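Input record (Table S2, row 148):
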Amino acid sequence: MSHHIEAAEYIVGDGDGWTQAVNYQRWSEQHTFYAGDVLVFIYVPGQHNTYEVNEDTYRTCNTSQGVVATYYSGHDQVTLNETGDHWFLCNIQDHCKGGMKFGVKVEAIMNTSQTSGSMGFTPTSIGGWGWVWTFDLVPLVGLFMLNY
Ligand SMILES: [Cu+2]
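Output record (copper (II) ion complex):
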């Protein structure tokens, strides 16, 4: 009954795409992202862009440091290879400070055939994100990464 064998692709903002005046944090909270999933940022090139940044840069919108990757194509496909937190923003003018930014927490792929007691689900509060379900499953993460 694994519900997540294949990687999923998500259009950021759904029909709105990647633009201003959309609550992307709310959008991201509607999904559970797993390692290997793909975020697609759709926008008119030059009007926006996609920066993956660290958490500090996400909070401050100051991209003089903490930039992990940049995309400008207007159809940016970002694969969430690593589990853990990923932070994105638009670096055009004041778009980031206007709310054009969000974070996602990427989970390890769940192997539902394994029911050992090592899988511990823990409700965890992440600042400003409300309650989310997280779990630690280091052996599975290791297996997954071997596939890349
Ligand atoms: Cu923008």
